[in-house]
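Dig into my protein:

:::
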Amino acid sequence: MKQLLISFIIHASMITYIPGEPSCPIFEDLRIHREISQKGFHRDLTTVLRVGHSQQRGTPPEFLLKETFPVDLYVDQYQLVDAEAFGGPQTIVPDDVDVERPASLSQGFSFFTYVSPQGGVQDQDTISITLPIHLRYQRPEKDGGRHTSALSHPVLAVKCAGSPSEATDTDQYLSVPCDTSRMEPLCLWKVLTYQISTSPLEMSVSIGRGSDLIVVAGVTLSIVVCCTVMLLYGMFTNHERQH
C-alpha cells in the first residue's frame, strides 16, 4: 500500500504548475563518475559525485539521483531498506519490483536515491554512493551466448527552497518526496547539468542453452521423483515400526 501511494503521489505531481520563481542552489562544476564491481548477476553500482563551487552559502545542498533501469536490471526494495538501516543510501522505489520475473516478462522502472552528506558539502568535495543491483535472467537460446545490459546516466537534481507549485518548466524540475521518512509533502528538485567521465555502463551475463532444456528438465524431474519415493518409503517404514 505504501509503495502504491508513493507511486500515485509522484505520478500525480506531473501537472501544469502555477508560475513562480523557486530558489535553487547554483553550481559551477558538477562531475559524476560511475563504475560497476562484482561479476555475474549480482553487482554493485558506485556513483561518485564531485561538487564544485556553489554560489549559495549556509544550508548544505541536498541532491537527488533519478535512476532509470531497463527491463533486464532491477533493485531489491527490501535489500535497499535493510542497507539503509545500517547506514546505506536512502532510496525510494515508487513501483513494486518483482525480483523473480525474467527480463522477457518485466518492465523498466525508475527510482530515487537521496544524497545528503553529513556535515554539508565543501568546494571540490566528493560523495560516493554504492547500490546493490541485479541482472534478470534471459530467455534461453538454442546455442546459449551472452547478453549485454546497458545502464543510462542518471538524472541529478538539487532540492530547492520552494514548493512544486512554483515551477514553470516541468522538464527542469522533479516533484519527489522530501525524504524517505514520509510520503508527503513533496519537495521541488531542480535538474542539474553535469559532466560524466564514463560512458553508459554495460554488464554482460550468460544465456542458458535452449538445447539443454530437455536434459536439465529430465534430470530435475528424476531427482524429484527419487526423493519423493525415498521420503514416502521412510514414512511408511517408520509407521510400520511404531505399530
